Amino acid sequence: MTSIERQNNRVIISGELTFNTVGKLLHRFKKLLAADPIKELDLQAVKRSDSAGVALLLACLRESRKLNKPLQICNMPQQMLAIAEVCGVADFLPTDTRG
């Protein structure tokens, strides 16, 4: 099961990020972002991702920038980082690789 939840100024995404799941996650992220500032997007609980997961990250960054709210991505899975590198967008993702 894929989910997105807020813990203070952090949003945690868990499960699988695929073409079938990211639309709902983006919709929920926008609602959370509108309510209060989000400083971190934590991906430690992501089990699997395809390129749609990377597209979700870029969309989340775009939405946070529209509202002038900087967003840090933390605990990005290696699989997602590899996809971002192949797609040429890794440099656009403000990541913190702690874990």
Q: Give me the strand/helix succession.
A: EEHEHEHE
Which word captures the global form?
globular
Q: In the residues, how many domains can be counted?
A: 1
Q: What strand order characterises the main sheet? A: 1-2-3-4-5
In CATH terms, what is the fold-level topology?
Transcription Regulator spoIIAA
- Low-pLDDT stretches: none
Q: Give the C-level CATH assignment.
A: Alpha Beta
Cα distance spanning the termini = 22 Å
What is the assigned CATH homologous superfamily?
Answer: STAS domain
Radius of gyration: 12 Å
**Overall mean pLDDT score?**
92
Secondary structure: number of strands: 5
- Specify the biggest β-sheet: 5 strands, mixed
Tally the helices: what do you get?
3
Which architecture name does CATH use?
A: 2-Layer Sandwich
Task: Describe the secondary structure blueprint for this structure.
Layout: E1 3-7, E2 10-17, H1 22-35, E3 40-49, H2 51-66, E4 72-74, H3 78-87, E5 95-96
Parallel strand pairs: 2-3, 3-4, 4-5
Antiparallel strand pairs: 1-2
Helix pairs in contact: 1-2
How is this structure best described in words?
The structure is a single chain. The protein is of the alpha/beta class. It has a single domain (3-96), classed as 2-Layer Sandwich (Transcription Regulator spoIIAA). The protein contains three helices and five strands, in the order ββαβαβαβ. The protein has helices at 22-35, 51-66, 78-87, and strands at residues 3-7, 10-17, 40-49, 72-74, 95-96. A five-stranded mixed beta sheet has the order 1-2-3-4-5, with helices on one face. It starts with a strand and ends with a strand.
